[in-house]
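TL;DR need structure tokens for one chain.
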Amino acid sequence: MSKYFIGIDIGTSETKAIAINENAEIVAQASTSHGINILKNGWIEQDANKIYWDDFRKTVSQILKSVDNVNAIGISGLSPCLVPIDSNGEPVRDSIIYMDRRGDKEAKKLEEELGMNEVIKITGNAPSSFFGGYKLAWFINNEPENYKRTWKVLDASKYIVYKLTGMAVMDEVSASLFAPYFDMNKNSWSYEIDKVLGGGTEKLPEICRVGDVVGYVTNDAAGKTGLPEGTPVIAGSTDAAMAAYSSGVTNVGDSCIIYGSTGLWMTVTNIAKYDYRLINSKYLWGNTISGSVLTFGSLLKWFAENVLKKNVSILKDLDLEAENIPPGSEGIITLPYFMGERTPIWDPNIRGMIIGLSISHTRGSVYRSLLEGVSFGLRQSIDVAKEMGIKINVMKSIGGGAKSRIWRQIVSDVTGIRQEYVYPNYGAAFGTAFLAANTIGVFKDPAEIKNYVKIVDVNIPNESLMNIYSKIYSRYLKLYPTMKMILGD
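>> reply
TL;DR here they are.
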């Protein structure tokens, strides 16, 4: 009888599920879309039961129509986010997701009391409300009754793990994004930080490894999902980490770029050297350093839907139009900080701009400037990594936006880095399913996933265009201080 392994990824706007067999072949797929709840500027949540749990059950039920004999399951998900549950395992409030910025005050308090250098020394990261721990500190300070009712604080994927197994855990990759409560050097929760922020660690769960079997599907969960009782459940991890793993990022020096709503570049390193301008986290092997562009694919979606009043399917036509526009977009430059920015500036209050417009410009000119602008934003983080002595020879390209060859080529021409496009890439769900199969012994080494990665296209930097973009990039870098001056404090 064939063995099957399920991987589920709970993303910001979609939950994806796949099943693979012992040969890592995809035998079933399912997905369902969902949204976010913007309460007000900077306050962004999701309903953990209606979105995380219900979507999980919907996609799993579709998968189980095609496969039986499920041997293991793993879950990945958006992170960092805050899912506080009570002693009955019910959410105390809606999930506060990574986009939420309401922990800014708590981040500033920690920096003032400990100092930037000490915060980075312990956590490896800049004090920013992006990280889960600052959301937790906000929760403690602003919703004391809800906090008192809270038994454990989980994230999206670990909420599902709990619902399936009754076990409250957090993998070390997800935990490292719960800065400042995670000590990167000790690989444990930081009680020093706990004292400064007034609690929090008492609600955080046990830390485990990404591939650990943390429990088994209970009788109750089996009845609610259709999964066989006793099915092993592996911890899984963040959607970003498992997406990188799915593209074959397994060795020190391996790198990838995820073309999603948010753009994320990451590379694996074995050095414990932290630069506050980047995101530093654990990985399946060693550590990773990452850079992000908060509005990456979402900026293109905004342009299609809100400016052109079209469906996102028009992006294919815009790609063709952009190919006929010369590098530099006929003088238009876009600063892509439409929702503030994380790396490398860590400024939640900055905003974007499109400058250099004239009546002779077309929508193709503006669109190409958006592609170039987000690529410049990506280069800002990559340049920091290069300053640290990190060598980046090639990047795997994954995610929905990577289907755009013109976008990939612009990224390569702007950054000077060769890209290998991986397709079809089933992302974090595939990585999680493969890791589940590895954990119970189907594969000897988790790094074997490289054998199943298919490179279908390559983007090689054009040296002459690199020179053109370097000149434009120097002008681009002047836009941030200009915009900051305009906006004021």
